Amino acid sequence: MNTSLAKTKNASSSIGGVGFTFIIALISFGLSKLPGLDHIGQLACAIIIAVVYRQIWGYPEKFRTGIQFSAKRLLRIAIILFGLKLNIDIVLHQGIGLLARGVGTIVFSILLTMLLAKLFKANSSLSLLLGIGTGVCGAAAIAAVSPILKAKEEDTAIGAGIIAFVGTIFAITYTILRPFLPLTDLQYGVWSGVGLHEIAHVALAGAPAGPDALAIALLAKLGRVFLLVPLSFILMYWMKRKNQVESDSEAKIEFPWFLIGFIMMSLFGSYVLGHLIPVPTSVMNSISFFTSFILTMAMIGLGLNVRLSDLRTKALRPLLAMAITSVLLSVVTYFTI
Protein backbone atom coordinates (compact mmCIF):
# COMPACT_ATOMS: atom_id res chain seq x y z
CA MET A 1 0.00 0.00 0.00
CA ASN A 2 2.82 2.36 0.94
CA THR A 3 4.65 1.47 -2.30
CA SER A 4 1.56 2.26 -4.34
CA LEU A 5 1.15 5.57 -2.52
CA ALA A 6 4.80 6.47 -3.13
CA LYS A 7 4.47 5.70 -6.85
CA THR A 8 1.34 7.84 -7.07
CA LYS A 9 3.09 10.68 -5.27
CA ASN A 10 6.13 10.40 -7.52
CA ALA A 11 3.95 10.36 -10.65
CA SER A 12 2.08 13.41 -9.38
CA SER A 13 5.39 15.21 -8.76
CA SER A 14 6.64 14.28 -12.23
CA ILE A 15 3.52 15.35 -14.11
CA GLY A 16 3.07 18.46 -11.98
CA GLY A 17 6.71 19.50 -12.44
CA VAL A 18 6.68 19.09 -16.20
CA GLY A 19 3.36 20.94 -16.30
CA PHE A 20 4.85 23.70 -14.15
CA THR A 21 7.73 24.27 -16.57
CA PHE A 22 5.30 24.02 -19.52
CA ILE A 23 3.07 26.79 -18.15
CA ILE A 24 6.00 29.15 -17.48
CA ALA A 25 7.40 28.37 -20.95
CA LEU A 26 3.99 29.26 -22.40
CA ILE A 27 3.96 32.54 -20.48
CA SER A 28 7.53 33.24 -21.63
CA PHE A 29 6.56 32.62 -25.23
CA GLY A 30 3.68 35.10 -24.92
CA LEU A 31 5.89 37.72 -23.27
CA SER A 32 8.55 37.32 -25.97
CA LYS A 33 6.01 38.53 -28.54
CA LEU A 34 5.54 41.89 -26.79
CA PRO A 35 7.34 44.99 -28.14
CA GLY A 36 10.76 45.27 -26.56
CA LEU A 37 10.72 41.77 -25.12
CA ASP A 38 10.63 40.37 -28.66
CA HIS A 39 14.32 41.28 -28.94
CA ILE A 40 15.18 39.40 -25.75
CA GLY A 41 13.47 36.15 -26.72
CA GLN A 42 11.54 33.48 -24.87
CA LEU A 43 14.64 31.82 -23.45
CA ALA A 44 15.77 34.91 -21.55
CA CYS A 45 12.17 35.66 -20.48
CA ALA A 46 11.85 32.12 -19.10
CA ILE A 47 15.06 32.27 -17.10
CA ILE A 48 14.13 35.66 -15.65
CA ILE A 49 10.69 34.38 -14.59
CA ALA A 50 12.21 31.22 -13.06
CA VAL A 51 14.84 33.19 -11.11
CA VAL A 52 12.26 35.71 -9.83
CA TYR A 53 9.90 32.87 -8.84
CA ARG A 54 12.69 31.20 -6.85
CA GLN A 55 13.47 34.40 -4.94
CA ILE A 56 9.83 35.11 -4.02
CA TRP A 57 8.27 31.68 -3.47
CA GLY A 58 11.29 29.42 -3.20
CA TYR A 59 11.88 26.14 -5.01
CA PRO A 60 8.61 24.22 -5.63
CA GLU A 61 9.72 21.05 -3.82
CA LYS A 62 6.52 19.10 -4.46
CA PHE A 63 7.27 19.31 -8.20
CA ARG A 64 11.01 18.61 -7.95
CA THR A 65 10.94 15.29 -9.83
CA GLY A 66 9.18 16.74 -12.87
CA ILE A 67 11.23 19.94 -12.84
CA GLN A 68 14.45 17.93 -12.78
CA PHE A 69 13.10 15.84 -15.68
CA SER A 70 12.64 19.05 -17.69
CA ALA A 71 16.06 20.36 -16.70
CA LYS A 72 17.91 17.18 -17.65
CA ARG A 73 15.93 14.95 -20.01
CA LEU A 74 14.14 17.62 -22.03
CA LEU A 75 17.42 19.51 -22.28
CA ARG A 76 19.07 16.54 -23.98
CA ILE A 77 16.11 15.99 -26.28
CA ALA A 78 16.28 19.67 -27.30
CA ILE A 79 20.00 19.39 -28.08
CA ILE A 80 19.34 16.29 -30.23
CA LEU A 81 16.56 18.04 -32.18
CA PHE A 82 18.77 21.12 -32.48
CA GLY A 83 20.85 19.00 -34.88
CA LEU A 84 18.14 19.44 -37.52
CA LYS A 85 19.12 23.12 -37.74
CA LEU A 86 22.57 22.13 -38.97
CA ASN A 87 22.83 21.34 -42.67
CA ILE A 88 26.21 19.61 -42.80
CA ASP A 89 26.23 19.44 -46.58
CA ILE A 90 25.95 23.22 -46.96
CA VAL A 91 28.62 23.84 -44.33
CA LEU A 92 31.11 21.44 -45.90
CA HIS A 93 30.52 22.50 -49.52
CA GLN A 94 30.06 26.25 -49.18
CA GLY A 95 31.42 27.27 -45.82
CA ILE A 96 34.98 25.91 -45.53
CA GLY A 97 36.46 29.41 -45.28
CA LEU A 98 33.77 30.40 -42.79
CA LEU A 99 34.47 27.18 -40.89
CA ALA A 100 38.09 28.29 -40.47
CA ARG A 101 36.86 31.64 -39.16
CA GLY A 102 34.62 29.71 -36.79
CA VAL A 103 37.60 27.83 -35.37
CA GLY A 104 39.36 31.15 -34.78
CA THR A 105 36.26 32.59 -33.11
CA ILE A 106 35.93 29.64 -30.73
CA VAL A 107 39.61 29.54 -29.76
CA PHE A 108 39.73 33.33 -29.33
CA SER A 109 36.56 33.43 -27.21
CA ILE A 110 37.47 30.60 -24.85
CA LEU A 111 41.11 31.55 -24.32
CA LEU A 112 40.46 35.28 -23.85
CA THR A 113 37.48 34.73 -21.54
CA MET A 114 39.51 32.37 -19.35
CA LEU A 115 42.51 34.71 -19.37
CA LEU A 116 40.33 37.63 -18.28
CA ALA A 117 38.56 35.43 -15.73
CA LYS A 118 41.91 34.57 -14.18
CA LEU A 119 42.87 38.25 -14.18
CA PHE A 120 39.57 39.25 -12.53
CA LYS A 121 39.61 36.21 -10.20
CA ALA A 122 36.23 35.18 -11.57
CA ASN A 123 34.50 31.83 -11.15
CA SER A 124 36.32 29.55 -13.60
CA SER A 125 33.46 27.11 -14.26
CA LEU A 126 30.95 29.81 -15.17
CA SER A 127 33.59 31.72 -17.16
CA LEU A 128 34.40 28.62 -19.23
CA LEU A 129 30.71 28.11 -20.01
CA LEU A 130 30.41 31.75 -21.10
CA GLY A 131 33.54 31.49 -23.24
CA ILE A 132 32.15 28.41 -24.99
CA GLY A 133 28.73 30.03 -25.39
CA THR A 134 30.31 33.14 -26.91
CA GLY A 135 32.47 31.16 -29.30
CA VAL A 136 30.02 28.49 -30.44
CA CYS A 137 26.27 29.01 -30.29
CA GLY A 138 25.14 30.62 -27.06
CA ALA A 139 22.81 28.85 -24.63
CA ALA A 140 22.60 25.68 -26.75
CA ALA A 141 26.37 25.23 -26.55
CA ILE A 142 26.36 25.88 -22.80
CA ALA A 143 23.61 23.30 -22.36
CA ALA A 144 25.48 20.76 -24.50
CA VAL A 145 28.85 20.99 -22.74
CA SER A 146 27.57 21.36 -19.17
CA PRO A 147 27.22 17.59 -18.58
CA ILE A 148 30.71 17.03 -19.98
CA LEU A 149 32.23 19.70 -17.73
CA LYS A 150 30.09 18.53 -14.78
CA ALA A 151 28.94 22.12 -14.32
CA LYS A 152 26.42 22.94 -11.62
CA GLU A 153 22.87 23.41 -12.85
CA GLU A 154 22.78 26.93 -11.42
CA ASP A 155 25.94 27.79 -13.40
CA THR A 156 24.32 26.45 -16.57
CA ALA A 157 21.21 28.56 -15.97
CA ILE A 158 23.18 31.69 -15.10
CA GLY A 159 25.41 31.23 -18.14
CA ALA A 160 22.46 30.69 -20.49
CA GLY A 161 20.68 33.75 -19.12
CA ILE A 162 23.74 35.98 -19.45
CA ILE A 163 24.54 34.82 -22.98
CA ALA A 164 20.94 35.35 -24.13
CA PHE A 165 20.78 38.85 -22.64
CA VAL A 166 24.22 40.08 -23.72
CA GLY A 167 23.87 38.52 -27.17
CA THR A 168 20.59 40.36 -27.69
CA ILE A 169 22.23 43.68 -26.80
CA PHE A 170 25.04 42.98 -29.29
CA ALA A 171 22.60 41.97 -32.05
CA ILE A 172 20.64 45.21 -31.64
CA THR A 173 23.90 47.18 -31.58
CA TYR A 174 24.95 45.54 -34.86
CA THR A 175 21.71 46.60 -36.55
CA ILE A 176 22.13 50.18 -35.28
CA LEU A 177 25.73 50.38 -36.53
CA ARG A 178 25.12 48.74 -39.92
CA PRO A 179 24.12 51.91 -41.89
CA PHE A 180 27.25 53.69 -40.68
CA LEU A 181 29.79 50.96 -41.48
CA PRO A 182 31.75 50.78 -44.76
CA LEU A 183 30.71 47.16 -45.33
CA THR A 184 28.81 45.54 -48.17
CA ASP A 185 25.71 43.57 -47.21
CA LEU A 186 27.59 40.27 -47.64
CA GLN A 187 30.53 41.49 -45.55
CA TYR A 188 28.11 42.59 -42.86
CA GLY A 189 26.48 39.14 -43.01
CA VAL A 190 29.82 37.42 -42.48
CA TRP A 191 30.61 39.77 -39.59
CA SER A 192 27.28 38.99 -37.93
CA GLY A 193 27.61 35.24 -38.41
CA VAL A 194 31.16 35.07 -37.08
CA GLY A 195 30.87 37.60 -34.26
CA LEU A 196 27.44 37.11 -32.63
CA HIS A 197 26.44 34.59 -30.01
CA GLU A 198 23.30 32.60 -30.95
CA ILE A 199 21.47 31.69 -34.16
CA ALA A 200 18.59 33.92 -33.06
CA HIS A 201 20.99 36.84 -32.58
CA VAL A 202 22.51 36.29 -36.03
CA ALA A 203 19.05 36.19 -37.60
CA LEU A 204 18.04 39.39 -35.76
CA ALA A 205 21.14 41.27 -36.88
CA GLY A 206 21.40 39.83 -40.39
CA ALA A 207 17.79 40.22 -41.56
CA PRO A 208 17.86 44.06 -42.04
CA ALA A 209 20.73 43.69 -44.55
CA GLY A 210 18.63 41.55 -46.90
CA PRO A 211 18.17 37.84 -47.72
CA ASP A 212 21.67 37.30 -49.16
CA ALA A 213 23.35 38.82 -46.11
CA LEU A 214 21.13 36.79 -43.81
CA ALA A 215 21.94 33.58 -45.71
CA ILE A 216 25.72 34.09 -45.46
CA ALA A 217 25.36 35.11 -41.80
CA LEU A 218 23.46 31.92 -40.95
CA LEU A 219 25.96 29.83 -42.94
CA ALA A 220 28.83 31.31 -40.90
CA LYS A 221 26.90 30.62 -37.72
CA LEU A 222 26.10 27.03 -38.72
CA GLY A 223 29.81 26.44 -39.21
CA ARG A 224 30.32 27.31 -35.55
CA VAL A 225 27.45 25.01 -34.55
CA PHE A 226 29.12 22.22 -36.54
CA LEU A 227 32.28 22.74 -34.47
CA LEU A 228 30.35 22.03 -31.26
CA VAL A 229 30.86 18.30 -31.87
CA PRO A 230 34.69 18.22 -32.09
CA LEU A 231 34.89 20.76 -29.27
CA SER A 232 32.79 18.47 -27.05
CA PHE A 233 35.14 15.55 -27.64
CA ILE A 234 38.15 17.77 -26.93
CA LEU A 235 36.52 18.80 -23.64
CA MET A 236 35.86 15.14 -22.79
CA TYR A 237 39.54 14.34 -23.33
CA TRP A 238 40.58 17.35 -21.26
CA MET A 239 38.27 16.39 -18.39
CA LYS A 240 39.55 12.82 -18.36
CA ARG A 241 43.16 14.03 -18.26
CA LYS A 242 42.27 16.51 -15.54
CA ASN A 243 40.62 13.81 -13.41
CA GLN A 244 43.58 11.47 -13.89
CA VAL A 245 45.95 14.16 -12.67
CA GLU A 246 43.72 14.88 -9.68
CA SER A 247 43.23 11.12 -9.06
CA ASP A 248 39.54 11.68 -8.50
CA SER A 249 38.02 8.24 -8.92
CA GLU A 250 34.49 9.56 -8.44
CA ALA A 251 34.70 12.08 -11.26
CA LYS A 252 34.23 9.71 -14.17
CA ILE A 253 33.19 11.38 -17.39
CA GLU A 254 30.09 9.83 -18.89
CA PHE A 255 29.94 9.72 -22.66
CA PRO A 256 27.45 12.38 -23.85
CA TRP A 257 25.23 10.06 -25.90
CA PHE A 258 22.91 12.93 -26.74
CA LEU A 259 25.72 14.33 -28.93
CA ILE A 260 25.49 11.18 -31.05
CA GLY A 261 21.79 11.98 -31.37
CA PHE A 262 22.73 15.52 -32.39
CA ILE A 263 25.05 14.18 -35.11
CA MET A 264 22.47 11.64 -36.33
CA MET A 265 19.76 14.29 -36.55
CA SER A 266 22.16 16.58 -38.42
CA LEU A 267 22.88 13.83 -40.95
CA PHE A 268 19.17 12.98 -41.18
CA GLY A 269 18.22 16.60 -41.77
CA SER A 270 21.05 17.17 -44.24
CA TYR A 271 20.74 14.12 -46.46
CA VAL A 272 17.30 12.57 -45.88
CA LEU A 273 14.73 15.28 -45.11
CA GLY A 274 13.99 17.26 -48.26
CA HIS A 275 15.92 14.77 -50.39
CA LEU A 276 14.62 11.24 -49.85
CA ILE A 277 11.67 12.36 -47.74
CA PRO A 278 9.90 15.56 -48.86
CA VAL A 279 8.92 17.67 -45.85
CA PRO A 280 6.84 20.87 -46.03
CA THR A 281 8.43 24.01 -44.65
CA SER A 282 5.55 24.34 -42.19
CA VAL A 283 6.46 20.98 -40.63
CA MET A 284 10.13 21.98 -40.24
CA ASN A 285 9.04 25.27 -38.68
CA SER A 286 6.85 23.37 -36.24
CA ILE A 287 9.76 21.11 -35.26
CA SER A 288 11.96 24.17 -34.78
CA PHE A 289 9.31 25.77 -32.56
CA PHE A 290 8.95 22.56 -30.55
CA THR A 291 12.72 22.37 -30.08
CA SER A 292 12.88 25.97 -28.84
CA PHE A 293 9.90 25.38 -26.56
CA ILE A 294 11.27 22.31 -24.77
CA LEU A 295 14.66 24.02 -24.49
CA THR A 296 12.79 26.86 -22.77
CA MET A 297 11.15 24.36 -20.40
CA ALA A 298 14.59 22.93 -19.61
CA MET A 299 16.02 26.37 -18.88
CA ILE A 300 13.14 27.05 -16.46
CA GLY A 301 14.12 23.93 -14.56
CA LEU A 302 17.70 25.16 -14.42
CA GLY A 303 16.70 28.73 -13.60
CA LEU A 304 14.82 27.61 -10.50
CA ASN A 305 18.19 26.59 -9.02
CA VAL A 306 19.54 30.14 -9.20
CA ARG A 307 19.73 32.36 -6.14
CA LEU A 308 20.27 36.10 -6.55
CA SER A 309 23.04 35.95 -3.95
CA ASP A 310 24.88 33.66 -6.39
CA LEU A 311 24.44 36.21 -9.17
CA ARG A 312 26.03 38.93 -7.05
CA THR A 313 28.91 36.84 -5.79
CA LYS A 314 29.52 34.59 -8.78
CA ALA A 315 28.26 36.14 -12.02
CA LEU A 316 29.49 39.73 -12.16
CA ARG A 317 33.16 39.02 -12.86
CA PRO A 318 32.51 36.27 -15.44
CA LEU A 319 29.98 38.62 -17.06
CA LEU A 320 32.64 41.33 -17.29
CA ALA A 321 35.16 38.88 -18.80
CA MET A 322 32.59 37.66 -21.33
CA ALA A 323 31.46 41.21 -22.24
CA ILE A 324 35.05 42.35 -22.90
CA THR A 325 35.67 39.21 -24.97
CA SER A 326 32.51 39.85 -27.00
CA VAL A 327 33.52 43.43 -27.73
CA LEU A 328 37.04 42.45 -28.78
CA LEU A 329 35.68 39.56 -30.85
CA SER A 330 33.43 41.95 -32.76
CA VAL A 331 36.31 44.36 -33.33
CA VAL A 332 38.79 41.67 -34.44
CA THR A 333 36.31 39.97 -36.81
CA TYR A 334 35.33 43.35 -38.26
CA PHE A 335 38.93 44.17 -39.23
CA THR A 336 39.59 40.68 -40.64
CA ILE A 337 36.66 40.62 -43.08
Question: What order do the helices and strands come in, and which of them pair?
Answer:
Layout: H1 2-31, H2 37-40, H3 42-57, H4 64-82, H5 88-94, H6 96-120, H7 124-135, H8 139-149, H9 153-177, H10 185-195, H11 199-206, H12 211-226, H13 228-246, H14 257-271, H15 281-303, H16 308-335
Task: Provide a compact summary of the structure.
The chain is an all-alpha fold and 337 residues long.
Question: Your description of this structure?
Answer:
The protein is an all-alpha fold. The protein is 80% helix and 0% strand. It is built from 16 helices and no strands. It has helices at residues 2-31, 37-40, 42-57, 64-82, 88-94, 96-120, 124-135, 139-149, 153-177, 185-195, 199-206, 211-226, 228-246, 257-271, 281-303, 308-335. Helix 9 (153-177) packs across helix 16 (308-335). The N and C termini lie far apart (70 Å). 47% of the residues are buried.
Descriptive key words:
single chain, 337 residues, mainly alpha, 16 helices
Q: Give the integer mean of the pLDDT values.
A: 85
Order of helices and strands: HHHHHHHHHHHHHHHH
Rg, Å, rounded: 20 Å
Instruction: Output the number of helix runs.
Output: 16
Fraction in helix: over 70%
Tell me the strand percentage band: under 5%
Question: Distance between the terminal alpha carbons, to the nearest Å?
Answer: 70 Å
- Tertiary shape: globular
